Amino acid sequence: MLYRVTLLTLFLFRRITIILVMLFSLSVVNAQSIRAYTKRADQLFKEKNYYGAALLYSKALNGNFNNGNGVLPYTPVVHKHGRKPKGAKEIYITHQLAESYRLYHDYQDALPNYERYLNLEKKPDIMAYLWYGVSLRATNQPDKAIEVLSKFTAEHTQEDAYTALALKEMADCRFNIEQQQNLQRFAIQKLSAPINALGSNYAYTKLNDSIFVFSSSRPDTIGKSKQVIYRSALYQFNNNQKSISKIFSQGLAYDAAAAQFSADRLHIYFTGWNEDQQNEANKYIIYTASRSGVDVTWDAPYALDTLVNAKGYNARHPFVTKDGKYLFFASDRPGGFGKYDIWKIDLMDGLPNGTPENLGAAINTENDDVAPVFLEDSATLYFSSNGRVGLGGMDIYKSKGNIVINQWNTAQNLGLPINSVKDDIYYNSFGNNADTSYFTSDRESPCCLEIFQSVKLPPLPDTNKQPAIDTSNKNQTDTTVKNITPILTIPVNKLSNEEQMRRHILDSLNSATVKRISVNFDFYKAKVRPEDKNSLDTIIQILKENPELNVVIGSFTDCKGKFELNLRLSKARSLAVKMYLIKHHIDASRINVDFYGEQHLILPCKDDATYDTAQQIANRRSDVIVTRSKNPKWIPSGKELDISQILDDIRNGRRPFRMVPDEPAAKANNNLKAERQLLREEKARARAEHLADLREARKLKQQQQEAAARLRREEKTRAAAERKARLQAEKEARQASARQQRAQQNAANNNPYITKPSKANNNVAMSKNIPPHIENELLQKDKKIATLDSISAIKSRLLLTAINHRSINQVFTVYTTSDSVHVDLYDNGTFDHDSVSVIYNSEIVVYKQELKTDKGISFKVPVEPNEKRNEMIFFAENLGDIPPNSALMVITDDQGKRTEVSISNDLMHNTIIYFVKLKKQ
Question: Omega of the bond prior to 194 within 30 degrees of 0, cis?
Fold first, then answer.
């Protein structure tokens, strides 16, 4: 698979922004012609905006010109159809549409457009066969892909990168066919919400027994206007509370993903990047942060030095070993084998030390090798690569080796079903040789990465196999039986033929399958979960674009409960999925429904103390199969525990129809009535849910209005309190000034150099020895001192009152051995007339000064050793032109050591910086 130039996720992360889509749609609202749509699409294609280009090429090709409502992708709407292109124009647009889908990595939609182009064009571009073959491989059609790619290599005789790509794609297809003949037994399950949500979700790792960390580009809001963005951030999931929160609550000014932690959980390493940065050099950087305790918030992250982040090159995907001695990472620095290679470097006190080492040719290739994870218990390195023969795209590999001497065995592909024809990355496992692992893939989504759980299943029992009996040690206890493979009397060739026959039957059953997904259900529920709607929307889009296709829904339960109730529950689940499709304008005649209760499990299940509700969600499923068959029935996927029995039944002419328990005819009629009642109840439930959603929306709106009213009341109360405090301060200042004037008058009366006014003239005070002009200067100076004292008192009272009415937003601690520090304050970004005040140990050091980008507000403060914490309060006087009020504080101690702190405040919050004096060593 070609290297993705636009790495919008942390390797393979693709972002869809609704604002961008609406911009594309609305920008051509008045261009009601094929020419206008094509011209605009060509422009977007040249700008490498393939998603927007595909949207407009599709409209031009199908004559869909009604764009007045701002149509979003994958949203069913009724278009006004205009004239469709014909001839050369149709061929050109079809080819461009296929190219746009491919470059956007939507191979499912690229495939039919390449087929259409090759049928229309008498002399097609030879490259179309290459990309058509790649699309076939990416949609799991390896046999046909080999045929098309062979035609390309026969006509394209040049020995270039395209020929090399075609040969590798064919090798990938052969590997796929081989893997399908030897399918491993794993239960693959997509994690539920809130982990998998809107946007990409990836790089799942463990912080402790109850908290797991992952990366996500789910929608977030910024600024006063609450603009929606899709920025990648680090989230933690509390498994006990079933809640998520950001790792860095104060937020970061850049995208962040793929976090890993030291064994003591006091150090975090992750990749950060700025998506808007045009220069690819040093775009991706590895950051680290630390904390003093496991329950303490993280300090501000900072970039590792050039030992890891080589100047002019990129570094990403850090992984720290369990003993804290080594750091693995991926980098495109010189000295590697190709694009991204995996490197390791020694760590000392959590920081790089020494020279990075490349892991060598056993691991790295001329393409991309990324996302390393080293499990010390098994001395195995797991990573992802697109430079080896595999299933296509990014595949996950493993290699055993010696980390100390940097020697590794040849990497092995994990195979199906861990890997797929799409992208698979970020493998991780927690525990010693655990059978449960986690990885990230886009196998079930046309746009985004999702997190999956993999559980290794025990091998299927084979009743035809009889182990040979060895009586030579009959009376001895065998303590190694678990590690010995039984000797079988059945010939290997016969076993191989039997398995090949079953695989052939399964392939024949699936030959008419276009798309297959599974949606899962909560315990004893028949409601489609929000996290599965994205997958169902993909099915809906396929059915709308291909009216000749049909769909079959086969539903199942786990083993908990009675057989009859589980059968009814599985039928309710099929009906729930069917109603979701009908609600989105899929004709009911195209939807076939099967239900099987607790049959055909894909994960072992016992209704006893070992039953695990969370794990058994893999069995609580509906298989949704898009097929070319006219009246389809459910067909197995090959993951079922009883797959051998299913295939044997089919081979002998029996189909796995749902089993209904034996019962009298009258009871059967009652069951028929009950099924009809169930459908009516399902419709009533759907209406009740809709009304509940409306009530919830009204309740939410009411809560928002109440919150806004509460904020207005609080603001009014705060303003009144500030006015009262200001008036009180002014009154006290006037009283103090009056007392000062009386004191001065008394002092003047007692001054031997100033004579008291005579009775003959009460308006003239005569001095004995001081000239009148000097006496006047002394009196004016005393008045100025009194005025300044009163102003300072007013400022202190007003500022302290305002501070007390705000809450604390950020807290930082700065440790120093210096007796004093020098502070410079700059506007953090664009100069927008932010102004601030700073209070240090209850004294005003900065009062309503404006922040600038080129000239800092400078002052020096002592760090008192007697104070446990010297407190500095950063107070925003306004928000400037671009909220919030943000500043960069540069702190320099007596030895010239610099510390930078980014501060962000609004009119409701303050930031506190504590300075702690340490003893010199």
Answer: yes
Q: Is 245 exposed, middle or buried (0-12, 13-18, 19+ CB in 10 A)?
A: exposed
- Burial (CB count <10 Å: 0-12, 13-18, 19+), residue 163: middle
What is the phi/psi pair of residue 290, to 5°? Answer: -135, 170
Instruction: Report the alpha-carbon distance of residue 32 to residue 886 in Å, rounded.
Output: 46
From residue 788, how far is each of 70, 497, 731, 740 by CA, in Å?
A: 62, 101, 15, 12
Count CB neighbours of 574 within 10 A.
26
Q: How far apart are CA 766 and CA 479, in angstroms?
A: 119
350: left (phi over 0), alpha (psi -120 to 50) or beta: left
Q: Which two tokens stand for residue 388?
A: 């080896």
d(CA 28, CA 16): 19
In angstroms, the CA 303 to CA 281 distance is 15
Closest CA to 299 of 876, 826, 900, 873: 900
Helical H segments across 182-291, by residue range: none
Report the distance separating Cα 554 and Cα 594, nearest Å: 5
* CB contact at 8 A, 168 and 133: no
CB burial of 92-125 (b: ≥16 within 10 Å; e: otherwise) equals: bbbbbbbbbbbbbbbbbbbbbbbbbbbeebeebe
* DSSP per-residue letters across 294-343: TTSPPPPPEE--TTTS-TTS-EEEEEE-TTSSEEEEEE--TTSSSSSEEE
396, 425 Cβ separation under 8 angstroms = yes
∠ CA 902-907-910, rounded to 5°: 45
- The model's pLDDT over 138-165, given as tens digits with 9 standing for 90+, comes to 888 888 999 999 989 888 888 888 988 8
Compute the distance between CA of residue 904 and CA of residue 874 in angstroms, rounded to an integer: 9
Q: What does residue 740 show for φ and ψ, rounded to 5 degrees?
A: -65, -40
Q: Report the distance separating Cα 742 and Cα 736, nearest Å.
A: 10
The predicted model scores a pTM of 0.51
In single-letter form, the type of residue at position 653 comes to G
pLDDT, tens only, 107-129:
888 999 999 999 988 888 889 99
Residues β-bridged to residue 417: none
Closest alpha carbon to 449 in 763, 15, 878? 15
- The kind and range of the H/E element at 374 are strand 369-375
CA angle 631, 632, 634 (to 5 degrees): 150
Q: Can you say whether the dihedral through the CA atoms of 828, 831, 833, 838 is positive or negative?
A: positive
Find the range with the poorest average confidence among 94-103, 139-148, 543-552, 831-840: 831-840
- Angstrom distance (rounded) from CA 572 to CA 498: 37
CA distance 57 to 108: 16
The predicted pLDDT at position 880 comes to 74
Which run of H or E residues covers position 576? Answer: helix 563-583
- Residue 270's H or E segment, with its range, is strand 267-273
d(CA 55, CA 18): 13
Q: How far is CA 543 from CA 117, 219, 578, 819, in A?
A: 21, 28, 13, 74
- Which residue has tokens 């429904």? 593
Distance between CA atoms of residues 628 and 511, nearest Å: 9
